[in-house]
Specification:
4-stranded antiparallel β-sheet, 9 helices, 39% helix, binds magnesium ion
Protein backbone atom coordinates (compact mmCIF):
# COMPACT_ATOMS: atom_id res chain seq x y z
CA UNK A 1 0.00 0.00 0.00
CA UNK A 2 1.29 3.45 -0.93
CA UNK A 3 1.15 4.74 2.61
CA UNK A 4 3.28 2.01 4.11
CA UNK A 5 5.73 2.22 1.20
CA UNK A 6 6.21 5.92 1.80
CA UNK A 7 6.15 5.45 5.54
CA UNK A 8 7.55 8.02 7.95
CA UNK A 9 9.63 9.82 5.38
CA UNK A 10 6.39 10.95 3.85
CA UNK A 11 4.68 12.08 7.00
CA UNK A 12 7.69 14.28 7.62
CA UNK A 13 7.58 15.48 4.01
CA UNK A 14 3.96 16.43 4.30
CA UNK A 15 4.67 18.55 7.32
CA UNK A 16 7.41 20.35 5.38
CA UNK A 17 5.86 20.02 1.96
CA UNK A 18 6.49 22.78 -0.48
CA UNK A 19 5.36 22.66 -4.09
CA UNK A 20 8.96 23.22 -5.20
CA UNK A 21 9.97 19.98 -3.49
CA UNK A 22 8.01 18.13 -6.15
CA UNK A 23 10.40 19.10 -8.92
CA UNK A 24 13.29 16.89 -9.99
CA UNK A 25 13.77 13.45 -11.49
CA UNK A 26 11.76 11.59 -8.84
CA UNK A 27 9.00 14.20 -8.90
CA UNK A 28 6.20 11.85 -9.90
CA UNK A 29 6.97 9.31 -7.20
CA UNK A 30 7.23 12.05 -4.62
CA UNK A 31 3.95 13.51 -5.76
CA UNK A 32 2.16 10.23 -5.11
CA UNK A 33 3.91 9.81 -1.79
CA UNK A 34 2.76 13.27 -0.76
CA UNK A 35 -0.78 12.53 -1.88
CA UNK A 36 -0.77 9.37 0.24
CA UNK A 37 0.68 11.31 3.14
CA UNK A 38 -1.98 14.00 2.86
CA UNK A 39 -4.64 11.33 3.17
CA UNK A 40 -2.75 9.78 6.06
CA UNK A 41 -2.29 13.03 7.97
CA UNK A 42 -5.84 14.12 7.25
CA UNK A 43 -6.98 10.91 8.85
CA UNK A 44 -5.19 11.90 12.05
CA UNK A 45 -6.25 15.55 12.14
CA UNK A 46 -8.27 16.07 15.28
CA UNK A 47 -7.84 12.39 16.06
CA UNK A 48 -5.30 10.93 18.41
CA UNK A 49 -1.71 11.25 17.32
CA UNK A 50 -0.15 9.74 20.44
CA UNK A 51 -1.61 7.04 22.65
CA UNK A 52 -0.15 5.49 25.77
CA UNK A 53 -2.05 2.48 26.98
CA UNK A 54 -1.42 1.04 30.45
CA UNK A 55 2.24 1.92 30.25
CA UNK A 56 4.42 0.72 33.10
CA UNK A 57 8.15 1.48 33.17
CA UNK A 58 10.46 -0.13 35.69
CA UNK A 59 14.14 0.86 35.73
CA UNK A 60 16.68 -1.78 36.74
CA UNK A 61 13.90 -4.10 37.97
CA UNK A 62 13.37 -1.83 40.98
CA UNK A 63 12.26 1.77 40.28
CA UNK A 64 8.69 1.99 38.96
CA UNK A 65 8.91 5.28 37.08
CA UNK A 66 5.48 4.90 35.40
CA UNK A 67 2.55 2.83 36.55
CA UNK A 68 -0.33 2.03 34.23
CA UNK A 69 -0.27 5.36 32.38
CA UNK A 70 -3.03 5.79 29.81
CA UNK A 71 -3.83 8.89 27.75
CA UNK A 72 -4.30 10.15 24.21
CA UNK A 73 -2.94 13.30 22.63
CA UNK A 74 -4.81 14.65 19.62
CA UNK A 75 -3.04 16.11 16.63
CA UNK A 76 -2.43 19.81 17.24
CA UNK A 77 -2.87 19.64 21.02
CA UNK A 78 -0.63 21.38 23.58
CA UNK A 79 -0.19 19.29 26.71
CA UNK A 80 1.68 20.04 29.93
CA UNK A 81 3.09 17.18 31.99
CA UNK A 82 3.46 18.45 35.55
CA UNK A 83 4.54 16.94 38.86
CA UNK A 84 7.35 16.94 41.37
CA UNK A 85 10.88 15.99 40.45
CA UNK A 86 11.08 12.21 40.02
CA UNK A 87 7.35 11.83 39.25
CA UNK A 88 8.04 10.39 35.78
CA UNK A 89 7.66 13.34 33.39
CA UNK A 90 10.91 12.82 31.48
CA UNK A 91 10.31 9.08 31.33
CA UNK A 92 6.89 9.73 29.76
CA UNK A 93 8.47 11.96 27.12
CA UNK A 94 11.15 9.36 26.38
CA UNK A 95 8.41 6.77 25.84
CA UNK A 96 7.05 8.81 22.93
CA UNK A 97 10.17 8.62 20.77
CA UNK A 98 11.20 5.13 21.87
CA UNK A 99 14.17 6.25 23.89
CA UNK A 100 12.61 4.06 26.55
CA UNK A 101 10.32 1.06 26.14
CA UNK A 102 7.63 -0.02 28.58
CA UNK A 103 7.75 -3.20 30.63
CA UNK A 104 3.98 -3.39 30.20
CA UNK A 105 1.54 -1.60 27.92
CA UNK A 106 2.02 0.03 24.53
CA UNK A 107 2.77 3.38 22.91
CA UNK A 108 1.26 4.40 19.57
CA UNK A 109 2.37 7.35 17.49
CA UNK A 110 0.41 8.21 14.36
CA UNK A 111 -1.37 4.89 14.49
CA UNK A 112 1.71 2.70 14.87
CA UNK A 113 2.76 0.72 17.90
CA UNK A 114 6.28 2.12 18.20
CA UNK A 115 7.44 -0.66 20.50
CA UNK A 116 6.71 -3.22 17.81
CA UNK A 117 8.36 -1.11 15.10
CA UNK A 118 11.61 -2.62 13.77
CA UNK A 119 14.77 -0.73 14.80
CA UNK A 120 15.28 0.24 11.17
CA UNK A 121 12.12 2.41 11.28
CA UNK A 122 13.05 4.29 14.46
CA UNK A 123 15.10 7.00 12.68
CA UNK A 124 12.02 7.79 10.57
CA UNK A 125 9.90 8.00 13.71
CA UNK A 126 12.39 10.39 15.28
CA UNK A 127 12.46 12.64 12.23
CA UNK A 128 8.85 13.41 13.04
CA UNK A 129 9.57 14.29 16.63
CA UNK A 130 11.61 17.34 17.66
CA UNK A 131 13.18 17.50 21.12
CA UNK A 132 13.87 20.52 23.31
CA UNK A 133 15.78 20.28 26.59
CA UNK A 134 16.34 22.40 29.67
CA UNK A 135 20.08 22.68 28.91
CA UNK A 136 19.66 23.35 25.15
CA UNK A 137 22.22 20.70 24.07
CA UNK A 138 23.71 22.88 21.32
CA UNK A 139 26.95 22.02 19.55
CA UNK A 140 29.31 24.55 21.12
CA UNK A 141 31.81 24.67 18.24
CA UNK A 142 29.12 25.42 15.66
CA UNK A 143 27.42 28.72 14.91
CA UNK A 144 23.67 29.29 15.24
CA UNK A 145 23.22 28.65 11.51
CA UNK A 146 25.41 25.53 11.61
CA UNK A 147 23.59 24.10 14.64
CA UNK A 148 20.26 24.30 12.84
CA UNK A 149 21.63 23.26 9.42
CA UNK A 150 23.25 20.20 11.02
CA UNK A 151 19.82 18.84 11.98
CA UNK A 152 18.92 18.78 8.28
CA UNK A 153 22.32 17.56 7.07
CA UNK A 154 22.19 14.43 9.23
CA UNK A 155 18.91 13.40 7.65
CA UNK A 156 20.28 13.97 4.16
CA UNK A 157 18.28 17.05 3.17
CA UNK A 158 19.75 18.66 0.03
CA UNK A 159 21.77 21.87 0.25
CA UNK A 160 19.16 24.02 -1.51
CA UNK A 161 16.54 22.98 1.06
CA UNK A 162 18.94 23.79 3.91
CA UNK A 163 19.71 27.19 2.36
CA UNK A 164 15.99 27.95 2.23
CA UNK A 165 14.76 26.46 5.52
CA UNK A 166 17.44 27.51 8.02
CA UNK A 167 17.02 31.30 7.54
CA UNK A 168 13.21 30.86 7.54
CA UNK A 169 13.18 29.04 10.88
CA UNK A 170 15.74 31.42 12.44
CA UNK A 171 13.46 34.25 11.41
CA UNK A 172 10.49 32.45 12.98
CA UNK A 173 12.25 32.10 16.33
CA UNK A 174 13.48 35.71 16.25
CA UNK A 175 17.19 35.13 15.72
CA UNK A 176 17.84 36.93 12.47
CA UNK A 177 21.14 38.79 12.59
CA UNK A 178 22.59 36.23 15.02
CA UNK A 179 23.26 33.43 12.53
CA UNK A 180 27.04 33.59 12.85
CA UNK A 181 27.26 33.66 16.62
CA UNK A 182 28.46 30.73 18.68
CA UNK A 183 26.35 29.49 21.62
CA UNK A 184 28.62 31.18 24.21
CA UNK A 185 27.86 34.52 22.51
CA UNK A 186 24.12 34.13 23.18
CA UNK A 187 21.88 34.59 26.23
CA UNK A 188 20.10 31.55 27.70
CA UNK A 189 16.84 32.56 26.04
CA UNK A 190 18.57 32.92 22.68
CA UNK A 191 20.23 29.51 23.07
CA UNK A 192 16.82 27.98 23.76
CA UNK A 193 15.52 29.67 20.60
CA UNK A 194 18.32 28.01 18.62
CA UNK A 195 17.37 24.66 20.10
CA UNK A 196 13.71 25.25 19.18
CA UNK A 197 14.75 26.20 15.64
CA UNK A 198 16.79 23.01 15.41
CA UNK A 199 13.89 20.91 16.69
CA UNK A 200 11.38 22.56 14.35
CA UNK A 201 13.37 23.09 11.15
CA UNK A 202 12.25 19.75 9.73
CA UNK A 203 8.62 20.63 10.58
CA UNK A 204 8.03 17.59 12.83
CA UNK A 205 4.54 16.41 13.73
CA UNK A 206 5.41 16.50 17.42
CA UNK A 207 7.63 18.60 19.69
CA UNK A 208 8.65 17.11 23.03
CA UNK A 209 9.97 19.75 25.43
CA UNK A 210 11.54 18.75 28.74
CA UNK A 211 11.58 21.70 31.18
CA UNK A 212 12.47 24.16 28.38
CA UNK A 213 12.15 27.18 30.67
CA UNK A 214 13.91 25.56 33.63
CA UNK A 215 17.14 27.59 33.25
CA UNK A 216 15.51 30.89 32.27
CA UNK A 217 14.29 33.93 34.18
CA UNK A 218 10.48 34.43 34.19
CA UNK A 219 10.33 37.05 31.41
CA UNK A 220 12.60 35.05 29.10
CA UNK A 221 10.66 31.87 29.87
CA UNK A 222 7.44 33.64 28.91
CA UNK A 223 8.96 34.58 25.54
CA UNK A 224 9.88 30.94 24.97
CA UNK A 225 6.31 29.90 25.82
CA UNK A 226 4.86 32.40 23.37
CA UNK A 227 7.13 30.92 20.70
CA UNK A 228 6.07 27.34 21.53
CA UNK A 229 2.44 28.47 21.44
CA UNK A 230 2.97 30.01 18.00
CA UNK A 231 4.58 26.79 16.75
CA UNK A 232 1.69 24.80 18.20
CA UNK A 233 -0.73 26.99 16.27
CA UNK A 234 0.94 25.90 13.02
CA UNK A 235 -0.47 22.43 13.76
CA UNK A 236 2.52 20.90 15.55
CA UNK A 237 1.56 18.88 18.60
CA UNK A 238 3.50 19.96 21.71
CA UNK A 239 4.02 17.89 24.85
CA UNK A 240 5.95 19.80 27.51
CA UNK A 241 7.18 18.62 30.91
CA UNK A 242 7.50 21.38 33.47
CA UNK A 243 7.21 22.22 37.11
CA UNK A 244 6.98 25.93 36.35
CA UNK A 245 3.68 26.74 38.02
CA UNK A 246 3.50 30.30 36.70
CA UNK A 247 3.81 29.23 33.10
CA UNK A 248 1.21 26.48 33.36
CA UNK A 249 -1.25 28.90 34.94
CA UNK A 250 -0.54 31.52 32.30
CA UNK A 251 -1.09 29.23 29.30
CA UNK A 252 -4.29 27.41 30.37
CA UNK A 253 -3.65 24.31 28.30
CA UNK A 254 -4.38 20.67 29.04
CA UNK A 255 -2.54 19.51 32.18
CA UNK A 256 -1.57 15.91 32.94
CA UNK A 257 -0.31 15.67 36.49
CA UNK A 258 2.03 12.91 37.65
CA UNK A 259 2.63 11.71 41.17
CA UNK A 260 5.26 8.99 41.69
CA UNK A 261 4.66 7.51 38.26
CA UNK A 262 0.87 7.66 38.37
CA UNK A 263 -1.35 10.03 36.38
CA UNK A 264 -3.44 11.68 39.07
CA UNK A 265 -5.11 14.40 36.96
CA UNK A 266 -5.83 15.03 33.30
CA UNK A 267 -7.61 18.32 32.84
CA UNK A 268 -8.43 20.51 29.85
CA UNK A 269 -7.38 24.17 30.27
CA UNK A 270 -5.92 23.31 33.67
CA UNK A 271 -3.75 25.09 36.19
CA UNK A 272 -0.86 23.86 38.32
CA UNK A 273 -2.37 22.71 41.59
N1 LIG B 1 17.78 5.96 33.47
C1 LIG B 1 17.27 5.73 34.67
N2 LIG B 1 17.69 4.69 35.41
C2 LIG B 1 17.14 4.44 36.63
N3 LIG B 1 16.18 5.18 37.19
C3 LIG B 1 15.73 6.24 36.50
C4 LIG B 1 16.25 6.56 35.21
N4 LIG B 1 15.60 7.67 34.76
C5 LIG B 1 14.72 8.02 35.71
N5 LIG B 1 14.80 7.16 36.76
C6 LIG B 1 13.96 7.19 37.96
O1 LIG B 1 12.62 7.15 37.53
C7 LIG B 1 11.81 8.04 38.29
C8 LIG B 1 11.17 9.07 37.36
O2 LIG B 1 12.19 9.89 36.84
P1 LIG B 1 11.95 11.01 35.74
O3 LIG B 1 11.15 10.44 34.65
O4 LIG B 1 13.29 11.58 35.40
O5 LIG B 1 11.06 12.06 36.55
P2 LIG B 1 10.88 13.64 36.34
O6 LIG B 1 11.24 13.98 34.95
O7 LIG B 1 9.44 13.90 36.69
O8 LIG B 1 11.81 14.30 37.33
C9 LIG B 1 12.72 8.63 39.36
O9 LIG B 1 12.61 7.84 40.52
C10 LIG B 1 14.09 8.48 38.73
O10 LIG B 1 15.09 8.39 39.73
MG1 LIG C 1 12.66 15.31 34.23
Amino acid sequence: MAISMCSWRVTSSIAAARKSDLRGPSGTARFWCLRAAETYVFHFRGARLIRLENVTKIYNSEVTALRDATFDVAKGEFVFLVGASGSGKSTLLRMMNRQESPEKGAVWVAGRNINEMPDSKVPHLRRNIGNIFQDYKLLLNKTVHENVAFALEVIGRPKHVIRQQVPAVLDLVGLNGKEDRFPHQLSGGEQQRVSIARAFVNRPLILLADEPTGNLDPATGEGIMRLLDRINKTGTTVVMATHDQRIVNMMRKRVIQMDRGIIVRDQARGVYE
